[in-house]
User: What shape does this take?
Amino acid sequence: MKKIKMGMIGGGIGAFIGDAHRRASRICNDFELVGGVFDVDYEKSKLFAKNEEIAPERCYKSVDELIKTESAMPAGEKMEVIAIVTPNALHFPFAKSLLNAGFHLVCEKPMTMTVEEAEELELLVAKKNLTFSLTHTYTGYPMIRQMRDIIAKGVLGTIQRIDAQYYQGWINSIIHGTESRITGIWRLDPEHAGASSCMGDIGVHAFNLIEYTTGLEIKEVLSDLSSVKEDIKLDLDGTVLLRFSKYLKGVIRASQVCGGEENCITLSVYGSKASLKWGQENPNYLYLLSDSEPTKIYKPAHGYNDQLAEAGHTMPAGHPEGIYEALANIYKGTAKSIRGEKFTPGEFPTVHDGVRGMKFIHSVVKSNKEGNVWVKV
Amino acid sequence: MKKIKMGMIGGGIGAFIGDAHRRASRICNDFELVGGVFDVDYEKSKLFAKNEEIAPERCYKSVDELIKTESAMPAGEKMEVIAIVTPNALHFPFAKSLLNAGFHLVCEKPMTMTVEEAEELELLVAKKNLTFSLTHTYTGYPMIRQMRDIIAKGVLGTIQRIDAQYYQGWINSIIHGTESRITGIWRLDPEHAGASSCMGDIGVHAFNLIEYTTGLEIKEVLSDLSSVKEDIKLDLDGTVLLRFSKYLKGVIRASQVCGGEENCITLSVYGSKASLKWGQENPNYLYLLSDSEPTKIYKPAHGYNDQLAEAGHTMPAGHPEGIYEALANIYKGTAKSIRGEKFTPGEFPTVHDGVRGMKFIHSVVKSNKEGNVWVKV
Amino acid sequence: MKKIKMGMIGGGIGAFIGDAHRRASRICNDFELVGGVFDVDYEKSKLFAKNEEIAPERCYKSVDELIKTESAMPAGEKMEVIAIVTPNALHFPFAKSLLNAGFHLVCEKPMTMTVEEAEELELLVAKKNLTFSLTHTYTGYPMIRQMRDIIAKGVLGTIQRIDAQYYQGWINSIIHGTESRITGIWRLDPEHAGASSCMGDIGVHAFNLIEYTTGLEIKEVLSDLSSVKEDIKLDLDGTVLLRFSKYLKGVIRASQVCGGEENCITLSVYGSKASLKWGQENPNYLYLLSDSEPTKIYKPAHGYNDQLAEAGHTMPAGHPEGIYEALANIYKGTAKSIRGEKFTPGEFPTVHDGVRGMKFIHSVVKSNKEGNVWVKV
Amino acid sequence: MKKIKMGMIGGGIGAFIGDAHRRASRICNDFELVGGVFDVDYEKSKLFAKNEEIAPERCYKSVDELIKTESAMPAGEKMEVIAIVTPNALHFPFAKSLLNAGFHLVCEKPMTMTVEEAEELELLVAKKNLTFSLTHTYTGYPMIRQMRDIIAKGVLGTIQRIDAQYYQGWINSIIHGTESRITGIWRLDPEHAGASSCMGDIGVHAFNLIEYTTGLEIKEVLSDLSSVKEDIKLDLDGTVLLRFSKYLKGVIRASQVCGGEENCITLSVYGSKASLKWGQENPNYLYLLSDSEPTKIYKPAHGYNDQLAEAGHTMPAGHPEGIYEALANIYKGTAKSIRGEKFTPGEFPTVHDGVRGMKFIHSVVKSNKEGNVWVKV
Assistant: This one.
């Protein structure tokens, strides 16, 4: 099948997340990176393009130039989709321009800096009828998709409690002075990172996984955040109480100062009949617990899985696939949408997930600022 | 060494927790059960005594009778210590009478129904200079003691976050009608169980483990509890935000409706230099995490452990010991105290831990009732 | 119920295995230790008796004296059962004398030094109609009993492969000179330990677990053993190929020089329809694997277990029990047999298991000595 | 950097392993698939080429045609490397022709059908001075590379025992008639699969991992293989005793009939000072055990790892990478070699590993056929 021509904004030399997107797009094999604006420094951008064997004339000085030139190219040759992998503050302006110019988008999270921007993008995507894929990567894991399917089928009975955790420890080395990573600096600066560090960067993933797997909406939050040290301006740690309905409550726990934790996301959904537990660091294991039967371990590449879960793992059982394949699964769904093929809801997170995420972040920050009170999401 | 003569209040035929105490006391081998009031029904009590080859004349009709008769017996023959394993509401009156009569006590938790009662007992224990051992059993695990030692030595640096969980699922079968256990009934009745089900029965263990291992005091709590169903009067589920100091926060999560969870206690203490993680269902594994070194797994029966941790496991490494041995370790410490031998603080939980626990339970209930506000512990 | 009067041969001060037997007998609560010959040194034996509050007149100088004196005592007072926990070479002579004198026995493994001795005991037990309980402790674990039950019910289909491992590392510190334990010395001396160290001490447990759980007999073995160092006279490491029938093969791997391994026993039984895996260091988890369904984890204290498995765990689910409780389960079965109560085959290993074990050890040693050839068990 | 032009023999529509190679080559990003002979059926081959947007003129009818046409193309345009992913029996003739024509090769294992063929290829590679990369994929895992490094540094002391396992269960569904996969058929046919099924397909991976990580050579083997059912001509299960030297022994256990096992490779290397354990299904965990210190868990993306291990994982710690990334690491090393860049021994398995593998397979088959006797590798 003909590959979809893709451009990229950001993601030049040394950019970790841009490289992840390119790998994922190559794994999925539906995309061809043909150009972009890879760095604010044009010389660096050109060097990157050369390394990647990208035609120099499609390495643009600016997003505006890219839009202008690419828009003038004939269908089949021009870029169809653009991946935005810049620092957070640039997501919105670039996304807006590119949508207005008719490009499909793949966008890193958090989608925008404010809820208003997010809602503006949602309207724009609807109006323009374009594909907008937000890379909440963890939803690409087969066992997360299986979890969603099991819950949708009602296996858990009435859901009674939801608990999600996202613990990392990498900011310790920055705030305690043993290391100073560039990446650390912009993430701790409200101007570039937005209203929140911990909740904006990782708590929102936990939020997204809850809504993705359960199909439920979190209605209200009460948060207690911590900056851990006097001179830090953003939250690096926090707990968020969740309310879904009168008798369904839950909690999100997130931290960037849990020394030694790597990327420890866990998700547990407890029901009256059965429960599900999953952890990101061993993503190919999904545990179904019940009071009366032995715990069951679901794994990829088995006939008992839902079709979408099954399609997301291409190796035979027992050959572990990981985070790149999860992101590739999202790219795969995005490709189907762009091509107008049939796809399953949940094959890629949408602009609506981005709106939800921004609402979550801002509700959480507000709750904390106002003294740990309940705030509607 | 001469065994300590022990009496027991409660714990007759069919009583699970009384049996556990007797097994533990036999493992530790410092006690001899010589009599008691095993059941409110005297006939049943006598039957129990007969089964256990206990002298019929020391199977008493009431606690008062026990006190009167035993007190009159010569030293070396009379009971020195009494284990109270009755339903919660009876702990206080019996403990008070027995302390006043000069008996050492082993008491099940929760220690009392109110904070005032707890404080009264604390004063009484001090005044009478008696041993009061509260069976927060989990503190008897060798790796919990090792955790306490590692933290005391400052290995973690500044503690930055504390997270404890206690999830069970057994109440599901009662509230959803598939089963009806006797034990379930009194636990859901405020008159017998006290102000709280979930927090009073299990949340308080999580609280105790935090204070035990870290040596820190929780200053304030904010809770959100749930009764899960309309007709239930007590909390069966909840989350408690914790504040230790301005920059040290934490969370306790507890639930009795996490279907399929058995007795899933986890405790994580995160520091600026390193962190510790432990789980009750595999109690012989303690994980020390750091950002710069491989994760280390501490296990019992190794020379690298602290002396108290080491003494709490008698088999060679790799021969798993469990919950009965943990309780036996607490009995062992209690015996040392009764005999006036040297013991390490932490060898058994004291009446002060009981006061702390009652304060925790009542603060949590108050916070929830008043609309999820901060309450001093 | 009236406790069974028990004597003990060996197991005095500092003896690890004797202490384990006493703890287990106290947990099970059907026995009362009333006397014995606790040490070859009579003074030490008396000191031990005093510490344990055992009547001094029942601390005997020799097994002969014990037999003579106890035999003369009235029923209800005299010892009914004797636990033999001496070094290996003494098991047989003491067992023979005691059986001839009409005592029931609990005996440590390996039961004897030779196959002939083992067979002599088997005949004697049958002739005397006494209870002989061989403490292959691991068969007391509830999940091993559950494994036996699942296999007996045919859940696995045709068994196609059996793999058992028993790896320890503790001899390293002795043979490489960093430590020198008393216990190490007799175990490396053929006169006291018998024909084999590794296979006789631990390999035989793996053998026993295979025959216990599957109900199959191993027909032939081919072994390759290693003494690891020039100056060691016994095997410290080895692999044994197993043949059950033409198309059912298996393997036992055992070693005492696997540095860092504690007591790593694993047992896997693979069938045409399903398979079972178990590991001793986390004994409360039994894994049922199949090609078409999620892996199932069986745990104790659930209604889905077989009755014998269920009875072997007294705490609620999720409260881990361990090796002492496993041994207590064997003592419990032994008590039932002594009392003439109904018991399930498999509640305790018998003299026949001891004969099988001795045959295994001697076949394995022979196969190795003759150049790794097949030898009938 | 300019991509290396790659051709492929085999791997057309529906071919699992060809797809894996293409994904891996795209992840590594040093290769561009420009043509090949994708299927014996030329029409299917052309369809595949079309789907992949490969120039139709470079979809060849035969390997001979490919050689002829590509050899005539100018440097920079012609294929430099060919990936051979055909059924086993075709590896040798194609490899020989392609090496003679001067192409670098990536070849699936087993490399050939006989030892002689393997040795012929080894000579040819040396003579032609070409890169020959054998895809023993598991050597591409970062923690396998870390294992090799730790052993090379002498951390384990004297190695005392080596134990490797490779258990799968997928053939059950074929031999017991519940399923019939095409892939199953050729694998059970000696003409296409070679002298062995289980040992040739998977046992050889275990062999390779042992020699790769330890740097040791297995000198002799004694095997006991099983075809499991009467009508099967090849081994589906077996155990192989290993001898490295007088006091260093080991074992390889492999089976394709372990129902429910997915791809359960484990590797344990036990030394006098410390030991290492690794399992393929959770490939990012490497356990270092010692008698005197807590077990250490090595994971990717940490500064404590060796450079090669570290380079093989591109995501931050805790973001699991899997089997595709392992294969991509081998492709990366292959690319360095083709480009004449500096690379570390072990970055990709070579033709010599292929010779060793064939010797292993044939020794094992011979040992079994001759009655389970020792055979030199």
Q: What stands out?
A: The radius of gyration of chain C is 21 Å. The longest strand of chain C covers residues 159-167.
